[in-house]
Amino acid sequence: MKIIKKLLKYTVIFVLSLMTYLLIVTLLSFVSVNEDFAENQKEIPIYILTNGVHTDVVLPLKSEYYDWTNQLKPEHTKAKDSTYQYAALGWGDKGFYLETPTWEDLKATTALKAASGLSATAMHVTFYKDLKESNSCKKLQISSDNYKKLILFINESFQTKSGEFLKIETDAVYGKHDVFYEANGSYSLFYTCNSWANQALKAANQKAALWTISDSGIFRHYN
Fold first, then answer.
1. Apex 47 CA angle, 160 and 34, nearest 5
2. Is the pTM higher than 0.85?
3. What percent of the chain has pLDDT over 90?
4. How far apart are CA 33 and CA 201, in angstroms?
């Protein structure tokens, strides 16, 4: 009887904690930052892109301010196409990226490591020739100064050696146009792939949520 009471007690505590966490996550995602940020110039087109779960930040591969092809190499993809115009960058848990092609493949150990912040992270880069605006793809025009801040934030997310991003040698890519690189930072319940994208927007002085773990927490500020 004592064991049953303890189990019920811990179950109630867990459920209440989860509900509190979800409530806080939801409320904070509605709080907007940089809503009234005034820019004198809007020079660089960037995009935010979601697949319904995960947010990527999409940048032009080359501009007068930065050439990403020195570090993000199209020849690292299966297609090895030299005509790409954009790179979509996403940060996340390495186990999720490389070991979980579908939700059915998700292992309990992978989920627990990701939730706890104990696993490694990776940068997923997908190359595009063009993008079309839609509900899942929003175009932003930002100033050169803010773009430079965004470049700095993204560069700091990659692990490097002698200035080179560290490519992950794996067959677990999603198609012919993407590649994985080693990343810095820890993924957890409190800092997800979408939290990273939200922080990237904050770094560039763009509209963002005060804090979010979901893609909807970002995109609601651009509807």
1. 90
2. yes
3. 67
4. 10
